[in-house]
Write a structure and sequence with these properties.
Largest sheet of chain B: 8 strands, antiparallel
Order of helices and strands of chain A: HEEEEHEHHHEEHEEEHEEHEHEEEHEH
Radius of gyration of chain B: 24 Å
Strand content of chain A: 15-25%
Distance between the termini of chain A: 35 Å
Strand order of the largest sheet of chain A: 3-4-8-6-7
Shape of chain A: globular
Number of domains of chain A: 3
Number of strands of chain B: 19
Shape of chain B: globular
Oligomer: heterodimer
CATH architecture of the largest domain in chain A: 2-Layer Sandwich
Helix content of chain B: 25-40%
Largest sheet of chain A: 5 strands, antiparallel
Number of helices of chain A: 11
Helix content of chain A: 25-40%
């Protein structure tokens, strides 16, 4: 009942903003305010719209309100030996489920298990006319209508306010071991991409400070057997290495320079950009601290069909890789189809949307 | 006075323009040439198109779209035509654009575990080409020998391995599309995500309504070290359904988890001799894959769980030949049912798994009510039902009764928290059931999205998303006929 009235309140706030021509800046726990371009408009706080609505471990689905703290979701799942398999970064203790999906971020397991959008099954959203709409559902397979739920993932709230969402969850692996091994960056790139065609239970892989790290997860015996096929020493589990990588808490991330997130194919060789590098996602997601010119960075990355996002610090005007003109126009039309008066998070992704 | 030749009609002009663009044999207008394109896998809907074009280059597709856009003529794209919802049903006044000539595998990149292919490449051909590198393409719809990857993307096809490996949307990276006005656009990228909105997900399953796919980059996976299948028999369908939940609650995600009921078991057994227990009320096939050790451990757990759930018999395939045999029975269930009945109608709803007993009871009641038998095959792991309604199209009125029966099953799926289509798409077939699944705000949003891509409504118009007007009529008719499912239930 209380949550019902909160969603009605949010709906009223949106309807009034539309009526008065105001802009709304959607906020959950505020943990991801540093991402994207600067938020504009009056705050639309969704953090009180919280709580798990339904979770049945047999169904592998959790449904919760968008303002539910991510921690609460993860504790509920852990109680039943399940997890959000895309290992979302929190970037702060107040992170909400809605913000996690709106930012569309995924952690180290992403290349092997899938991304935030891959686990998205359905959502209830408020559009820019103040209407409540429901897409997808609480089932694994659903091809009725366009896949709006996945479109909402990573849209930075520019298409609507996510009120509720359903995610697929998975069992936690019974065992997990990380091996680390000294090697050059070039060797690491070869090694990590090579793992993609090997039938090994790899579920995370990165290269940092002259060492490659591989996490193996699965049944106990399966992890023991896989270890024998790879070089390297066992990492102490208590170091929480992957969690610190996911949360940007490794010492590597202790810098004030602009931090770039660079997405390339795993086999892409070392890029000729000055700065400090950390290769995650088996080489497919590369973190770079660099003072190099943004246009130069993007130009080099584009030569490899990749794209670069200014993740932290620096000039927050051009954060995401610019889109080619026809694509930009199409994305603008999609934005308008959801939010004709440009109420939600204007300019958070691109100046135009 | 010499009479001028009559001015060609706009249709004739368009066909002439196609003939200038394409070789003679790639523009079909004779009725007998159009006939093979009159329907897809759902052959109860048939219609001849105005013209069929068979381009073989992206530039030709662009030119065709520019011509159609200028002439405001609708276009229906078609792959192998194996779809089961009438999505590729032609329009009488429209162009049928076949992508059958786009058959090339452009690149297999084993280091990055991806393949770039043309849309007319068959699903299974991708895995065949990747096999030399120890890789495969995971989604495996039952029509995978024939269906094309372009159609798979348009329908977001599934298969028996979805629970563990996902649908088409989880296994593609990049699409090149030709827009309604002939522009070539790249959607997604070779990297794991792309700047801007996730249009890749939006395009997948869009049923040819948003663009024409001309190139697809798919993700490849390493072939698991071992795959093994366990067969369990039950004397009660409900127990089998509960066993599915228990396997998953035990922390196991099977590579495939299929269920068949008695009628399906017997038909499959007569057809494929798969060593199924004929007297069982239901069987489960549970495939486990992964490392040798993982599969061994999981087989033990699954055996235990199945016994505890009341299985009357649990068997592990003793070798690869027996594993293939167990699957042969399941994969031939549709043709097997086709042998015991003149016709059958395959439905495709998805439900939360715990609702299975309720839905099965409902279907059995309807089966009595309509006097039509139902065989059930079920992607049990992900709740995707495929009831096969047995009927005889030669008996007057029986097809109509079958369709009505089917509609009521789908509407009940929505009522228990599921959906009208898990993997076959809406197409022509389930367009009225979209009115049951969605309210007008959502339907209006779908139309607005379509408009962002296709302002003149020329791409596969009339499919997948009903107009609000159609839903209003459907709703009126629906209540009038007293068809509202389960009036005894409270409605909110």
């Amino acid at each position: 009942m209380v949550n019902q009235s909160i969603s009605e309140l949010l709906q009223t706030q949106v309807q009034q903003a539309v009526k008065n021509g105001h802009r709304l800046n959607i906020v959950g726990g505020g943990s991801k305010h540093f991402l994207g371009r600067q938020g504009q408009g009056a705050t639309l706080n969704i953090s009180q719209h919280r709580g798990i609505i339904e979770y049945d471990p047999h169904e592998l689905v959790i449904t919760a309100r968008a303002g539910t703290p991510l921690q609460e979701i993860e504790h509920a799942l852990a109680d039943k030996q399940q997890m959000l398999a895309f290992e979302p970064p929190h970037f702060g203790e107040h992170a909400t489920l809605g913000g996690t999906i709106a930012a569309g971020l995924s952690g180290p397991r992403r290349p092997y298990a899938g991304s935030a959008r891959d686990f998205m099954l359905g959502c209830k959203v408020l559009n820019g006319k103040g209407e409540i709409m429901q897409f997808g559902g609480r089932v694994m397979k659903n091809v009725a209508g366009y896949d709006v739920s996945r479109l909402m993932t990573g849209a930075y709230g520019t298409l609507g306010v996510i009120l509720e969402l359903s995610l697929k969850v998975l069992p936690r692996p019974a065992a997990s071991v990380t091996l680390f091994n000294e090697c050059s960056e070039a060797d690491a790139i070869l090694f990590m991409s090579g793992l993609l065609s090997k039938a090994l239970p790899v579920d995370a892989c990165c290269y940092y400070k002259g060492q490659s790290y591989v996490r193996l997860s699965g049944s106990k015996q399966s992890v023991v057997d896989a270890q024998k096929k790879l070089l390297g020493e066992r990492l102490n589990q208590r170091s929480h290495f992957w969690q610190r990588l996911r949360e940007h808490e490794l010492s590597f991330f202790n810098r004030d320079k602009p931090l770039w997130r660079i997405l390339v194919k795993p086999t892409t060789p070392t890029l000729a950009i000055d700065g400090e590098w950390l290769l995650d996602w088996g080489g497919a997601q590369r973190w770079l601290y660099s003072d190099a010119d943004a246009a130069d960075i993007r130009k080099i990355v584009q030569q490899y069909n990749g794209h670069a996002t200014l993740f932290r610090n620096g000039d927050r005007h051009d954060v995401f890789q610019p889109l080619a003109a026809p694509m930009q126009l199409l994305q603008q039309r999609i934005k308008t189809s959801f939010d004709p008066d440009n109420v939600f998070n204007p300019g958070r992704m691109y100046a135009e949307i | 006075m010499t009479g001028e030749a009559p001015k060609p009609t706009p249709t004739e002009q368009l066909i002439q323009a196609f003939q200038q663009l394409l070789p003679d044999e790639a523009v079909l207008t004779d009725t007998e040439d159009l006939r093979p394109f009159e329907c897809d896998g759902l052959s109860v809907y048939r219609r001849l198109p105005m013209v069929v074009v068979l381009p073989e280059t992206v530039e030709q597709v662009q030119a065709i779209m520019r011509l159609c856009f200028a002439a405001k003529v609708p276009v229906v794209a078609r792959g192998a035509g194996t779809g089961l919802s009438g999505g590729a049903l032609p329009l009488e006044d429209g162009v049928l654009l076949s992508l059958a000539k786009f058959k090339q595998i452009l690149d297999i990149d084993p280091q990055n575990a991806m393949a770039t292919v043309q849309p007319g490449v068959r699903n299974l051909a991708i895995s065949d080409a990747a096999a030399a590198h120890g890789l495969y393409y995971a989604p495996d719809p039952s029509s995978q020998i024939a269906c094309t990857i372009g159609g798979n993307v348009a329908e977001n096809s599934g298969g028996v391995h979805c629970l563990k490996y996902g649908l088409t949307v989880h296994n593609i990276l990049q699409l090149k599309i030709v827009t309604v006005d002939g522009e070539l656009l790249t959607i997604g990228s070779e990297t794991l995500d792309s700047p801007g909105y996730d249009l890749l997900a939006l395009m997948t399953g869009s049923e040819g309504m948003l663009g024409i796919f001309v190139e697809i980059t798919v993700k490849l996976l390493a072939k698991p070290e071992r795959a093994q299948v366990v067969l369990a028999a039950f004397d009660d369908v409900t127990k089998a359904g509960e066993a599915v939940g228990e396997i998953i609650a035990a922390g196991i995600i099977p590579a495939g988890l299929e269920m068949m009921d008695k009628l399906a078991i017997q038909a499959a057994e007569d057809f494929a001799h798969a060593c199924y227990p004929r007297d069982a009320e239901a069987i489960l096939l549970c495939e486990l894959d992964g490392s040798n050790a993982e599969v061994s451990e999981q087989i033990m757990t699954v055996h235990k769980v199945l016994k505890q759930s009341g299985a009357t018999e649990v068997r592990t395939a003793k070798d690869e030949a027996e594993r293939q045999l167990f699957w042969k029975g399941r994969k031939s269930a549709f043709p097997a049912v086709g042998r015991i009945s003149p016709d059958y109608y395959c439905m495709d709803g998805t439900i939360p798994r715990r609702q299975l007993p309720k839905v099965l009871r409902f279907m059995s009641e309807l089966s009595n009510e309509y006097g039509l038998a139902v065989a059930n095959v079920f992607h049990a792991g992900d709740g995707n039902l495929h009831p096969l309604i047995l009927f005889d199209a030669n008996t007057p009125g029986e097809l109509q009764r079958t369709e009505e029966f089917g509609r009521r099953i789908l509407e009940f799926c929505v009522e228990v928290g599921g959906t009208i289509t898990g993997e076959h798409g809406v197409g022509m077939e389930k367009i009225d059931q979209m009115c049951v699944q969605f309210q007008s705000a959502e339907l209006s949003q779908f139309h607005a999205i379509k408009k962002a891509f296709d302002p003149e409504n020329l791409l596969n118009p009339g499919k997948a998303v009903p107009t609000l007007h159609r839903c209003a009529e459907f709703g009126a008719m629906h209540v009038h006929n007293g068809q509202l499912a389960h009036p005894e239930l409270e409605r909110f």
